[in-house]
Amino acid sequence: MIIDEKLIILDLDVNNKLEAIASLSETAGKAGRLSDIDIYCQKVKKREDEVSTDMGFGIAIPHGKSDVVLDPFVVFAKLKKPIVWNEEENSKVNLIFMIGAPENSKDNVHLKILSQIAGKLMDEDFLNDLRNVTEKETVLNYFKSIII
């Protein structure tokens, strides 16, 4: 499964985008999804420098493809307080979905995951539920339909 309880954070307390990326990368590493947390973290930061992954509506979807990704994953974080994600637009986020995929995945797994998450995020009720969620099991149920 691309997400499990170890990949869900319901009260992430960070001050900025870089702290968030580092914290979520560490979460993926501790869950056994990465062979090198630092390399993956740098890959995501580099991708973020190229184009912001701020999706609007208080959501960011940072992602990275790397050889250090052992299994595709999504780390979900609900923040304690919103942080600025896109400095140019002063856009703030309070929900983050970090996607990791192996560098040489032939089926573009990260694009499939991104597409499925983006589709779910169009549902306003779904977003409101995520913003108010208090149980990891509830988050898991929301993502059972994401299939790769």
Structural summary, described in words:
The protein is of the alpha/beta class and 148 residues long. The chain is built from five helices and six strands. It has helices at residues 17-30, 37-50, 109-121, 124-132, 136-142; strands at 8-12, 54-56, 59-60, 63-66, 73-86, 91-102. Strands 1, 2, 3, 4, 5 and 6 form a six-stranded mixed sheet that branches. The longest helix is centred in the first third of the chain and has 14 residues, at 17-30. The chain is globular, with a radius of gyration of 14 Å. The N and C termini lie close together (9 Å).
Distance between the termini: 9 Å
Low-confidence stretches: none
The amount of helix comes to 25-40%
Number of helical elements:
5
Mean pLDDT: 91
Radius of gyration: 14 Å
Structural class: alpha/beta
Main sheet characteristics:
6 strands, mixed
Q: Strand portion, in percent?
A: 25-35%
User: Topology as H/E string?
Assistant: EHHEEEEEHHH
The total count of strands amounts to 6
Q: What would the principal axes of the Cα set say about the shape? A: globular
Set down the secondary structure blueprint:
Layout: E1 8-12, H1 17-30, H2 37-50, E2 54-56, E3 59-60, E4 63-66, E5 73-86, E6 91-102, H3 109-121, H4 124-132, H5 136-142
Parallel strand pairs: 1-5, 3-6, 4-6
Antiparallel strand pairs: 2-3, 5-6
What key attributes describe this structure?
5 helices, globular, single chain, alpha/beta
